[in-house]
Specification:
By secondary structure, this protein is an alpha+beta fold. The protein is built from 4 helices and 5 strands; from the N terminus they run αββββααβα. Helix 1 (2-24) runs antiparallel to helix 2, helix 1 (2-24) packs antiparallel against helix 4 and helix 2 (61-90) packs antiparallel against helix 3.
Length: 165
């Protein structure tokens, strides 16, 4: 039981960190090594100053939906972890971690919705740039997709996890 508890806790922390990185880092769409876009900014590397020059992304309805859903996923997963810690120390023997599991499942569903919207509407989100077909999805987008099954699996594990002495 202690091994399972440590595994679920570690999985939760790793998934939360991956979800936070996927939400905040600057690589959801990459054109080349000197230009990329994320949920918040479009950045270009300036060779003259050797610095990244970033401008705010153009606000579209799809981008706002993805931003809101990814932030909600981080919030749900964070709340889930805090509730888990509270339940771990206050719940009676034999209790199930229903609230923790449901929050984690909601985090997985919101991350799924966000990445699905970005997958289907990335051309609208990126705007009408002439070279939008030359780019590809970045590592943060892939990281967000990896988080979806991990969040859902950990949520299901929490629902079936019983507290023992």
């Amino acid at each position: 039981m202690a091994f399972l508890l440590m595994f679920v806790t570690l999985l939760h922390l790793i998934t939360l960190a991956m979800l936070f990185i996927a939400t905040m880092e600057k690589s959801w769409w990459v054109w080349d090594s000197t230009s990329n876009s994320d949920l918040w900014y479009k950045c270009t590397y300036d060779n003259a100053t050797e610095a990244w020059l970033c401008t705010s992304s153009k606000e579209t309805e799809w981008l706002q939906a993805v931003q809101a859903l990814m932030v909600l996923a981080v919030v749900f997963s964070s709340i889930s972890f805090l509730v888990f810690l509270g339940q771990l120390f206050t719940m009676s023997k034999g209790g199930l971690f229903y609230i923790t599991g449901l929050c984690q499942i909601f985090a997985g569903l919101t991350a799924f919705a966000a990445t699905l919207i970005y997958t289907l509407h990335h051309s609208d989100i990126l705007g009408r740039v002439p070279d939008s077909n030359l780019g590809h999805f970045g590592y943060c987008f892939i990281l967000a997709w990896v988080c979806v099954p991990l969040l859902l699996c950990s949520g299901v594990m929490y629902v079936h996890l019983r507290k023992r002495e």
